[in-house]
Amino acid sequence: MLTRRDFVQAAGIGAAGALTSMIGARGREHAVWSLLEPTLHAVEPGIICLASNENPVGPGKTVLDAVRTAFGPTGAQPGRYSGAASALTEEIAKQFKVKTENVVLGCGSTQILRSATHLFTAKDKPLVGTIPTYEECAGYASMMGHPVTGVALDSEFRIDLDKMANAAKGAGLIFYCNPNNPTATYVGARATREFIARVNRESPDTTILVDEAYFDYVTDPDHDTHVPIAIENPRVLVARTFSKAYGMAGLRMGYAIGHPDTIKKMAEWDGGGGAGSLNVLALHAGIAAIGQPPDFTANERARNTAVRDFTMKWFADRGMKPTNAQANFMFVNIGRPVKEFREACKAKGVLVARDFPPFEKTHCRLSFGTMEEMQKAVAVFGEVLGKKVTARAA
Ligand SMILES: Cc1ncc(COP(=O)(O)O)c(C=O)c1O
Question: What's the pTM?
């Protein structure tokens, strides 16, 4: 059996072809990986959970009130299949100044990622993604027996655009996760636009799935959505989610924006406009969430940025180098195997993320809690890591 480590070591040597055939033969790698993950069930009181990229303050009163109302007699009638999918689609279209034909909903953006993988990869059309990245597409492609090509990151842990463009030739789908999970790094909007144009030129049949899950958290000044390109270009699709800045991870609601032809194909996979797999309470939550005043996301970004800066500085002051985090989590070189660190932190009530090969010997992913939680968490990190820590190079 190919272990997760074998997979990553193959990727690390840049053996895209070898990796492709191994994964194709191996089946759903993701299933093996998930056995290694901490369980993501509700966290016990008193435990600080920094192990998955959620919003620690949750969805807020506006959204919770909408869910409560949806339960009531004048609300969504949970006993019936919902018509609210079209109302949320209209709200999203209004927000982005696009048409409803440009939008498809999903049960979380996970469904969007799976549908795109299903549609655009094949036995002779690989999925291309970085190593590491969010594994949904790679796991789903390999489950279907479709090849996956892994591309190493650049020295700053960002997507290596040259390597990615070269690997894209003849590929079915590029998973362009920006900011990237787990590294939290971001490629600027201009470079991304150039990358898309290059792939369109050099491999015109390849679709690029730009995952903007963490869009609202980016503070890099060269920041922009790729929705305007996606609505014009059938080979570009943007995935979005309510799970992050809107704090609705457990409610499960995401969407894609793209060209009407691409969205139509996606909708066929998603049970007719997504409605077949959607939860009526999440639809009402989504309508309330996206209808909040424009400063909602700005305030959430500011809250996260303060926590991010505090936590990154804590590590940097102790000689541990974080990547340039542009999300609600960070990736930091703690100079020791993450497993040891994770177990020691867990014993003191703080959960940090699982291993992310090939960086499991050095780098830990930490999702940001509230400021109060991070202040408590760094006290635990200090005890576990010792006062004078100098991280080894990666
Ligand atoms: C980059 C990225 N995309 C998509 C998802 C899936 O999110 P959801 O299905 O909750 O929308 C995640 C979850 O963490 C993620 O990190």
Answer: 0.89
